[in-house]
Amino acid sequence: MICRWIVLNSSKVSRILSPFSSLLSSKSSFSVAKLDDEPNTSTNFSSDHRDCFDQEILFDMKNLGFREYLHGQHFRGLVSDLRQTHVEDVMGELMAESPDLSVWFFKELIDVYGFRHSRFSTLLVSHILAAQRRFNELQVILQHLLQEEGSGSAYLLCELLSSSFREWDSTGLVWDMLLFLTSRSKMVDDSLYILEKMKDLKLNVSTQAYNSILYNFRQTDKLWDMYREIDAKNEHTYSTVVDGLCRQQRVEDAVLFLRDCEWEDVGPSVVSFNSIMSSYCKLGLVDTAKSFFCTVLKCGLVPSVYSHNILINGLCVAGSIGEALELAGHMSQRGVEPDTVTYNILAKGFHLLGMISSVWEVIQEMVDRGLSPDVITYTILLCGYCQLGNIDKSLRLLKDILSRGLELSSVIPCSVMLSGLCKTGRIDEALSLFYEMKANGLRPDLVAYSIVIHGLCRLGEFDMAVWLYDEMCNKRIHPNSRTRGAMLLGLCQKGMLLEARAFLDSLVSTGSTLDIILYNIVIDGYAKSGCIEEALELFKVVTESGVTPTVATFNSLIYGYCKIRNIGEARKILDGIKLYGLVPSAVSYTTLMNAYANCGNTERVDDLRREMKAEGISPTDFTYSVMIKGLCVAGKLEKCEEVLRDMSDEGKTPDQITYNTVIQYQCSVKDLSKAFELFEEMKLRNLDPTPATYNILMDGLCLYGYIEDADRFLCSLQEQGVDLSKFAYTTLIKAHCVKGDPEMAVKHFLQLLDRGFDVTIRDYSAVINRLCRRRLANEAKFFFSLMLSRGISPDLDICRVMIKSSDVAAWIFKSGLLPD
DNA sequence: ATAGGGTTAG
């Protein structure tokens, strides 16, 4: 009996007695009044005491209510002392009394006390529940068991089932539920093991369980084997096959299958159509998806929220936001209401179009309609803030998201934030967020690692990048081509080509399958550094190892030859592209054109333009800017007008780079008013000037001695909060030095430091050099001291310049500032 | 069972 067990097994037995004290006082003589306060008092239980917990008391206890008893303080104190064997004993005894009681006891231990049950007691209760057809409860406790046991537990469970429960009538149901749950929990091997055992024991396998197994195999070639094994197929079976075929990129087969099974019992379901629509949308064939939507209607079926959302999403991705909105607006008429997903899709659609304010409106409407934004909604918002460069706002939002409860999916908003921080160079904050994630139990995944590694590499922080790369490998998160690409790209951009190549070779030697992108990055790295020999050698490795080059591979080689000014060879590479069965791209032509444009060879540029046209390759904005640059270099401005006309004929407007090119040309021919006219024009056209635009104008003003204008220009830009680059300042600083207005030079230089620009020895050197030449020794000294105070040591160049100016030299020697 | 969020060489 439970009471006897409690008396015999618990060290805290004294506490148990008190709930019954009132009961006991009337029935027996012993008192428990003080025992609670004195837990160490040893209590001697004689056989008399044990007798107190006899049938009669158990009976009374039941009358009093186990529930009250077990919820009492006294029982709670006992739970930590419960052992598996005790529970099983109690369960056994309770079973004899009443199965319901034992089930209740079992569940109470789990729900109230978080107790971990043995396999045996769980299976025992499972059989009771199965016999009573209490399937929901059965599912809950078996799921609980499987979570605790983990993968690979099927063997032991099957052993136990067939040895101890074979006689139970309900055992088949327990087996089947176990099969269903292992399959649904993606414990594929366990589910297959159970399935085999069930077949051996000739137990019935439910369609639900089979469907779940089929679902796990839907993306593999075992799909049909599994399908054929199922005797009692239902709607789910068919829709799973349809979905599987869709995911295997076999939409046509899916459609055929759907048509065939129309003749069988149930007819096609909306779910199957949804899978097919989703597939066509992903292939970019929204119109086909739409026609299936019509088919659904024609079949007399009702498109679900899913159907609508799938199509709305397809339309958004295809850029047809108007049509997407229209469809969403018609949902109510079809008897379905837009849900959070619908609004998220629309919000993302606007985000893709860069219409951030509309993203806001969509979310507002969603809230107005009483729907709650979810993690995904917030993630889209977060993307928007990051895209607008509002990193601090993003950080606040992320904090807000995370404080709403850490879901497993919260890794994604963190990744968005990581990406935002990395892109704005705030790598330290990215790293601390990364650590914070780990500390909060959010395990960074492949994407999160890749983003941070990419960010580190871009800044040349390779030690840390390699460290994280190793860490992710150790955590069995396998780097993919992008992660590796980030490492290679970073190394190449820092000019560390030997290291990049060593890394690439190490990947080859460890047997990783390398895709062409990784080779392309290193080939491009060689080409950009003017190492055409190495680029060609690696290209040879590519072709010899059976990897197919892409146009990008050849484009890098073209660039490489252009870089070393061997345009002839570059041209030969262009012609060679077709020999590999590839088509030259706009980049191929533009790169070559750029080489000709740089030396003002407009005839060659024109030739290439004609060739492009003949090949049916459309010029890009970049191509046009190169053509215009060529004309500017050659001084044929009148022809620029012609090209600009061609552009507008094609519906293209010149981009910022093109404007910059022409503005630079106007500056170079001293027509500053024309230059500023163009500057105003580009603003009128809603083209944001780039930092380079300001630099060009600033340089132009300074070059022709309009320094006061340049000062005013800088001031007004600062007032407008324009994003200026360091160059705008240094140009002006140099001009003031040359002109002999060191005060202004100092003023601007201090601003440069104030605004947190990375001021290097080159910048100090440029100023000191010019000041010394103008014999402005005191100012030169000032900058020299400033440099030292910022922790920068003078190099040989600066010392040489300073020494030449004898006054300064004496000062340096005197102050002992010269390095060894 | 079917829908929505994060990385991306030139």
Automatic annotation (TrEMBL):
InterPro entries: PPR/CCM1_RNA-binding (IPR051222), PPR_rpt (IPR002885), TPR-like_helical_dom_sf (IPR011990)
Pfam families: PPR (PF01535), PPR_1 (PF12854), PPR_2 (PF13041)
Annotated PROSITE patterns: PPR
Span of the signal peptide: none
Residues in PPR repeats: 234-268, 269-303, 304-338, 339-373, 374-408, 410-444, 445-479, 515-549, 550-584, 585-619, 620-654, 655-689, 690-724, 725-759, 760-794
UniProt keyword annotation of Translocase present: no
Keywords: Repeat
Family per similarity comment: Belongs to the PPR family. P subfamily.
Name of protein: Pentacotripeptide-repeat region of PRORP domain-containing protein
